[in-house]
Amino acid sequence: MAHVTWVVLAACMFFGGSSGSTSGGIKSIRGVMLLKVVKNEFRQILHPNAVLPMKIDGYNVQMSKRVTLLGFIGLYLFLTLICAFTMIAAGIDSTNSMTITLSCLGNVGPTLGLEIGPTMSWNELPDFAKWISSFLMLVGRLELFSVLVLFTPSFWKEN
After folding, report:
1. How buried is residue 152: exposed, middle or buried, by Cβ count under 10 Å (0-12/13-18/19+)?
2. What's the pLDDT at 82?
């Protein structure tokens, strides 16, 4: 039964807080927007010529914002998987690897593993995993695009 609650908690770590929260994660408003995008895609398949606006709180969401949303979620998933796999390759078990990644990227609290859980120390993590965790905390707190744009060459070119 404990593993069912772990999955629920990991899903909460993935989505993070509400839209005004300083926690990382996908955020609840992005989750709602994603569900509406998927719903509109199903409708579009059934009615190919229909013009289907997407409204959040009565306001129409532009197509460019929808593309940004999908890019953000895709990048978030990619970064989560890459960092979790890197930690697994470093010798950390899969439960700890995934929940350390979600915890750090979402800035939402402790992991759910038995070796590095809420009452244990992260001291036994390899240094490489601590650096990855620090990077994920920074990216999660300051939002993905605003931090990762710093690593693009065009950001540093003078205009």
Report:
1. exposed
2. 96
The type of residue at 87 is: M
Given a cut of 80, is residue 117 above it in pLDDT? no
pTM of the predicted model as reported, rounded to 2 decimal places = 0.85
Collapsing DSSP to helix, strand or coil, 59 comes out as strand
Question: What pLDDT, on the 0 to 100 scale, is given for residue 118?
Answer: 66
DSSP 53: -
The span from the CA of 16 to the CA of 103, in Å, is 9
Please give the backbone phi and psi of residue 38, each rounded to the nearest 5 degrees, phi first. -65, -45
Residue 108 CA to its chain's centroid (Å)? 11
Mean pLDDT value across the chain: 85
User: HSE (CB half, 13 Å, CA atoms) of 20?
Assistant: 0
93 three-class SS: coil
125: left (phi over 0), alpha (psi -120 to 50) or beta: beta
**pLDDT(26) > 90:** no
The kind and range of the H/E element at 55 are strand 55-56
* Residue that is written with structure tokens 């796999």 in the block: 85
CA distances from 38 to 23, 54, 55, 70 (A): 25, 11, 13, 11
